[in-house]
Amino acid sequence: MIDIKNISKKFNTAEGTVEALKNVSISIPEGDIFGIIGMSGAGKSTLVRCINMLERPDAGSIEIDGVNLCELSESKLRSVRRDITMIFQGFNLLMQRNCLKNVCFPLELAGKSKSEAKKRALELLDTVGLGDKAKAYPAQLSGGQQQRVAIARALATNPKVLLCDEATSALDPTTTNSILELIRSINEKLGITVIIITHQMSVVESICKHVAILDNGEVAEQGEVTEVFSHPKSLAARKLVFPEGSTDSLIVGGSGERFVRVIFNGAGATGSPLIARMAVEKGIEANIAYASTKSIGGKAYGSMLLGISGDDADVNTAVEYLTQTPDVLAEEVTVHV
């Protein structure tokens, strides 16, 4: 269990004092894949650097398995950091070392013999699917392959926690999916707690079990991914879940239409047949004002904004009909935020 309690962090800049984190509290279950998401400047990178104590918080505590890292000396922290490893957007590989020696590096720092380090590093390269690239240098690899080497290196010391700081932001969608599947597999096989720092909703949706949304240095909302993304309560969460909601232009006053938001949270049916069936079975036609849905594993995720011309009875019938489908939520909205 990772308990982040009332963490605050300020920085002094030429423009004045910046409050990067304000009384942040998050609980991360052991063995979880936990997402921390927010827009640029929300405080994500500062928080992840506080978790491994590269930045010491000004106030609050960070406990891992009951040990408060904020109370440890630098020498004891160096030992603890072997249990908290990190992968980055830029991979941070040593360009003058081949893949094998990159993975050996933390093992050598931990005092392992060269033979022990080599054996372990080869095993880890096999784990990440790069057993044949041991002698290759980072410059000879694709971005996805470099990140796999970085993951192997991060696993070298048998960590309890893996921090992923925008680890897929520099990768294309296909490579991103393969890296996320690798992280999921490692989590399942090794039981490592994974913390994903990202600004990408798709990353959190595809891999995380729980999520905390940071906004201006504060936790705006946290909980299970399905619950937070299905029923976002905070303005920051709604802006992330419904990016089309950043403008009111989709709802035109005086148009005579009522608006219903439909959320697909793993529904077995795609959006279009459901709306078409409603027209046929209930005689209610809907204008799709906005749609952002995708199919993952044959299931639909995303949201729609429907315009319905009708009275209260028509809108209520539409909402009732739509929500009868498993993993579909619907609600009338009057202010689209």
Number of strands: 14
Order of helices and strands: EEEHEEHEHHHEHEHEEHHEHEEHE
Strand content: 25-35%
Cα shape: globular
Secondary structure topology:
Layout: E1 2-13, E2 16-28, E3 33-37, H1 44-51, E4 59-64, E5 67-68, H2 74-80, E6 84-88, H3 99-109, H4 114-127, H5 143-155, E7 161-165, H6 173-190, E8 193-198, H7 201-207, E9 210-215, E10 218-224, H8 225-230, H9 235-241, E11 257-267, H10 271-282, E12 286-296, E13 299-309, H11 312-323, E14 328-333
Parallel strand pairs: 3-8, 3-9, 6-7, 7-8
Antiparallel strand pairs: 1-2, 1-4, 4-5, 9-10, 11-13, 11-14, 12-13
Helix pairs in contact: 3-4, 3-5, 4-5, 5-6, 10-11
Describe this structure in words.
With 337 residues, the chain is of the alpha/beta class. The chain is 34% helix and 31% strand. It has 11 helices and 14 strands. The strands form 3 sheets. The protein has a 6-stranded mixed sheet, sandwiched between helices. Strands 2-1-4-5 form a 4-stranded antiparallel sheet, covered by helices on one side. Strands 12-13-11-14 form a 4-stranded antiparallel sheet. Helix 3 (99-109) packs parallel to helix 5 and helix 5 packs parallel to helix 6. The longest helix has 18 residues, at 173-190.
